[in-house]
Amino acid sequence: MTEIFKNLIAGELVGGSNASRNINPSNTNDVVGEYAQGSIEDLNNAVAAAKAAFPAWSRTTPQERYEILKKASDEILARKEELGRLLSREEGKTLPEGIGEATRAGQIFAFFAGECLRLAGEAIPSIRPGVGVEVTREPVGIIGMITPWNFPIAIPGWKVAPALAYGNCVVIKPADLVPGSAWALVDIIQRAGLPKGVLNLVMGRGSVVGQALLEHKDVHAISFTGSVSTGRKVAAACIASNPMKKVQLEMGGKNPLVVLDDADLKLAVETAVNGAFFSTGQRCTASSRLIVTEGIHDRFVEAAIERMKGLVVDDALKAGTHIGPVVDQSQLDQDLKYVAIAKDEGAKLAWGGEVLKRESPGFYMQPALFTEASNAMRISREEVFGPVASVIRAKNYEEALAIANDTEFGLAAGICTTSLKHATHFKRNSEAGMVMVNLPTAGVDYHVPFGGRKGSSYGPREQGAYAREFYTTVKTAYTLA
């Protein structure tokens, strides 16, 4: 029989009223496991457990928290192949990508183990004689987390690790589509010595568990990663709650990669193909708009198509696979819908865009490249979240920059050029939170801030030392000597 994985509430495994099947998108006959579906009662019990655990946990020493997070990091890294295989099996990333993401989760926990020991305050002279001022950081309280399906271990990792490092308690609801990696991560952290109730996992539907988390009066902050439409609802619920909740949102992207006439063609093509299509294009940082200047446009398109012809789309666990399946049928339908929309709008399908059959039944799609696209088309305005990219022709650098910034999103942007002048100008004038020069827009380090502008992000940055802005609150204390 298929194993049923239960929720973790107050340090105990708790079953739900039913369970959902976690299906391998590379082989729909393969059931990864059955995962309990939590109820509103389960969510309420998890919040109560976190509330009960908070007074003691928030006052633990930095050394105590360091040792738990470091132990968790050590186990994640020791099991990175196993965890990577689980991730690839449930989400569809290739095995090297899955192992790489598991490794990143381990590195994140190691970094925030160190942050436990690096948190500092300030002693500031008052403008009044004989008065001392201390500025310190304290944990926010109970943090609710809602995580997406496309990075099922890294994103839970980069939310949970800083929350615990700074003394908060957590209730996390992972994506219902891929609960396995989050379950494995929480299991590792719990066994690293975390007191009961500090970290709670409640799986289930967003409309049930997620909504109850947003509405709960004892939850002090919400960290959410997902779509723009859902993010707006999350923000509205946090503001409407009493008391109001602190909120952090990471949402969509329609990221540009500018390719100038002076770019190294081979590097530009590899950068574009990697950023647009690897991880099946299911990254909020994917390069879905390729803005190419006239002098290199035709050569770039020809070389990009040749590179795409060599990409192997197959089972995520097979050696030699470059691109795995789309995560599920719903996402595949959305990708194909946008291929049809782009054709109707007048863009030319230069390569790909077809459903593929492989040895095992799965959600396989040939990456799609459109040319003759404009920035006004829906294919250039709306996030597809799949292996679909469009090439937009620009007259020169100035027009390319204007097109790149003409979007409601502002997560990542990139440029391929050998011109220091243009690279420097682009870094300063790109309206994105993260800018890459001669690198794919997808792919960031774990020790620096992650986040964007405009419709892509709201609230403090994630990752690195900047995570403390969300997971701590500042206290100013005065003392008369």
Helix segment count? 15
The class by helix and strand makeup works out as alpha/beta
- The name of the CATH superfamily of the largest domain reads Aldehyde Dehydrogenase, Chain A, domain 1
Average residue pLDDT: 97
- Read across the widest sheet, the strand sequence of neighbours is 15-18-19-14-13-21-22
CATH topology of the largest domain: Aldehyde Dehydrogenase, Chain A, domain 1
Provide the helix percentage: 25-40%
Mind telling me the C-alpha Rg? 23 Å
Number of strands: 25
Structure, described:
The protein has 481 residues and is an alpha/beta fold. It has two domains: 4-251 and 456-480, Aldehyde Dehydrogenase, Chain A, domain 1, CATH 3.40.605; 255-437, Aldehyde Dehydrogenase, Chain A, domain 2. It is 40% helix and 25% strand. It contains 15 helices and 25 strands. The protein has helices at 40-57, 62-78, 80-91, 95-118, 154-165, 179-191, 206-215, 228-240, 265-277, 294-309, 329-345, 378-381, 397-405, 420-429, 468-471; strands at residues 4-5, 7-9, 12-14, 18-24, 27-37, 122-125, 131-139, 142-146, 169-173, 199-201, 221-225, 246-250, 255-259, 287-293, 348-351, 355-356, 364-365, 368-373, 388-394, 409-410, 412-416, 434-437, 453-454, 457-458, 472-480. Strands 15-18-19-14-13-21-22 form a seven-stranded mixed β-sheet, with helices on both faces. A hairpin with a 2-residue loop joins strand 4 (18-24) and strand 5 (27-37). Helix 2 (62-78) packs across helix 6 (179-191) and helix 3 (80-91) crosses helix 4 (95-118). It is globular, with a radius of gyration of 23 Å. The mean pLDDT is 97.
